[in-house]
Amino acid sequence: MTSMPKYFFNIVLDGQSTLDGLGQFLSDEDAARAHARHLTMLLADRCRDPMNSFVAVSGMDGRLVFKVAFQPSEPQT
User: Fold this and answer.
1) DSSP secondary-structure letter at 14?
2) How many CA atoms lie within 13 A of 37 on its CB side?
């Protein structure tokens, strides 16, 4: 039986970092990417600077696995 990898979801919102000290066990990188996208959607209304906002996902060794950028929000009409 193979253990699931642990991912850490470090959030950079408007240039301000929040480190994930707990991490989360997920089945694979695709599941981690989906979780990171979900985090960007949850925090989208707080994002004022999409160019300096992303979720940096790292593994147990602390190395960056990938980043998921915040998408610029659509103007309210």
Assistant:
1) T
2) 6
Per-residue pLDDT tens digits for 18-57? 999 999 999 999 999 999 999 999 999 999 999 999 999 9
Q: Which residues pair with 56 in a beta bridge?
A: 10, 67
Backbone angles phi, psi at 66, to 5 degrees: -170, 170
User: CA-CA distance, 56 to 42, in Å (whole number)?
Assistant: 15
Q: Output the six-digit token pair for 18.
A: 């929040």
User: Which secondary structure element, helix H or strand E, spans residue 34, and what is its range?
Assistant: helix 29-43
Backbone phi, psi, residue 63, to 5° = -80, 140
